[in-house]
Amino acid sequence: MTRPYSEDIRERALARFEAGETIRSIGAALKISPSCVSKWRKLKAQTGSLDHGKIGGHKKPRLSGETADWLRERCRFGPFTTRGLTAELLARGIKSDRRSVWLFLRAEGLSFKNRAAGRTDPT
C-alpha cells in the first residue's frame, strides 16, 4: 500500500493554486498527479483541513459473536484440534481456516494438550 503525500506538499500545491497556477502546471512542477491537486482543493473546501483519510483498517474477526460463544463452549466440552474445530465450523456453515481458529484459541487462552504416549505417573 502506498503512503499518502505529506501535508507539506499538499500545502505547497494549494498555495500555488491560490497564487493562480493551473492544476496541470502544479502537477508537473511537484511531480504529482493533477487530480491530486483538485482532490486536495475539494478536501480543503469541505473539511477545512488537508489531513489524509484513514489508511488500512481493522477487519472484524470472523470468529466472533455467536460463533465465538459456540467455540468456547465446544472447547470446554472435550478434546479438540484446530483441524477438527475448523471442520466442525464448516459443518455449521462457517467457512474458516486453521490459522484463524488457532488465533482465536490463543487469544482466549484455550488449549488442549494430549498426554505423551507411554508417560507414567511419577508417584
Describe the structure.
With 123 residues, the protein is mainly α. Among the domains are: 7-47; 66-108. It contains six helices and no strands. It has helices spanning 7-18, 23-30, 34-47, 66-77, 82-91, 98-108. It is rod-shaped and about 75 Å long. The mean pLDDT is 86.
Give descriptors for this structure.
single chain; 123 residues; 6 helices; mainly alpha; rod-shaped
At a glance:
This protein is mainly α. It has six helices and no strands.
Structural class, by secondary structure, is mainly alpha
What is the alpha-carbon Rg in Å? 27 Å
Let me know the largest β-sheet: none
| Shape verdict | rod-shaped
Order of helices and strands: HHHHHH
Number of strands: 0
Distance between the termini: 59 Å
Percent range for β-strand residues: under 5%
Q: What is the secondary structure topology, with strand pairs?
A:
Blueprint: H1 7-18, H2 23-30, H3 34-47, H4 66-77, H5 82-91, H6 98-108
